Amino acid sequence: MTLHPHLAFNGQCEAAFQSCPDPGFCGGIAGFPCPPGLTCVDNPMDECDPADGGADCGGMCVREERPIACAGFTGDGCPAGYECIDEADDCDPNNGGADCPGICKPSQPAQCQADSDCLVIGAPCRICPDGSAACPRATCTNGQCGAVFDGCAGEES
Known about the structure:
about 160 residues, 3-stranded antiparallel β-sheet, 12 strands, disordered N terminus
């Protein structure tokens, strides 16, 4: 919705609201496409659900959200606050794929530098058959806190 507060009528200012543009119909039995830059998604406002057997469900056009590309042949980096991660494809930069494309994802600020920087896990320890204890513990890996739940000796994980 767009607000235009500067419109005047009989010398008085008034607000004029324009409705949002129609998202556009797509899909259905005819498979109507969306304009370039938009993609067809299920319309959540109707009773038809393609995931529940609806074969002729209409959709609505929404703006395509593409992640920012990085690495690859061009070697492009990511904007500040983002990091380049390997794209889920057949190219593996750790297995000879020096020109694999990546996508930018928001960087996570470092939560920790050592295990002691992470919150203590309040779950109880488990007593193992041999009398030892298997206790959950917090770990710091690559600046992110995590949890490890050790098992008893001889148990499969």
